Protein: GTPase Era
Organism: Methylophilus rhizosphaerae
Amino acid sequence: MTEQTQSPDGFRCGTVAIVGRPNVGKSTLLNHILGMKLAITSRKAQTTRYRLLGIHTTEDTQFLFVDTPGFQQKHINALNKTLNRTVTQVLSEVDVVLFVIEPMKLGEADELVLKMLPKNKPVLLVVNKADLMGDKGNLLPLIQDFDLLFDFAGIIPVSAKKNLNLEELLQATREHLPEQAAIYEEDELTDKNERFLAAELVREKVFRLLGDEVPYSVAVEIEKFETVKNLRRIFAAIIVDKDSQKPMIIGKGGEKLKQISTEARQDMEKLFGSKVYLETWVKVKGGWADDARALKSLGL
Ligand SMILES: Nc1nc2c(ncn2[C@@H]2O[C@H](COP(=O)(O)OP(=O)(O)OP(=O)(O)O)[C@@H](O)[C@H]2O)c(=O)[nH]1
């Protein structure tokens, strides 16, 4: 359990990881807790070990939401192995883990996540999409079965989308955070700079719009980032392993790349509160996913 550093006013502050298989609503949950679109959910090709996704500060608590790089079963290369280790490590370092499931669709993918949960940390089972459950009586046996598989610190049904029970979830989470003063200023939403966030947004769109076809090793590099009055000019290279992967990202007549850029730019404008000029292109950097030096340069 967490070591508690006393703070005179009982304020609590600590790290929270949200895990769960794709599509259970993790980013919706975080977005609704933070109250704005800041959860950038690219779970692939992470560049940092410990990424702060967002900070939620209330009168008595500061929740630091950290990202956990995704665990991929399909592609096995050096990068992947490093990332799987990273997930386990991140999960064992946070104060509390929120394991999100969808009640009617429990399956193998959820069990894979379950296997990675830390035994030495409190894990809350968050049953999302409660709004879709007509008869709540049906839900109970299902959850109870799942509950037998792991020693959860609590089970909380919520609806991220409809903002149902999120306060209760935060209260339950708070109980597991150490008593200590806030680490960040109240209005600080993330500790990452805009350049980093811009790269994450482009990468998120690549994965969202191309799904599983996209190679795990895709990365985004911001080659230039300028702020001129209320305009940010951002130049982003999308980096792939092989020439053959280039057309996939560019799409027929450049359609995919255009869509990636448009959606990323719209999110950036929301996030930065300014106009954004975004230029994106695809670059080939052969075999970097298996290159130990490249891993090192990513800080892994
Ligand atoms: N009905 C309902 N739908 C929800 C709820 N929460 C999320 N969704 C929907 O579920 C879908 C997946 O939500 P995401 O937040 O993208 O899920 P995720 O777990 O972050 O997905 P990955 O990024 O792929 O891991 C979206 O269409 C959401 O609108 C909820 O409480 N109720």
In short: Confidence is low (pLDDT under 50) at residues 1-5, 36-50, 71-79. Residues 12-174 form a domain with the Rossmann fold fold (CATH 3.40.50.300). The chain has two domains: 12-174, 194-297. The chain has nine helices and nine strands.
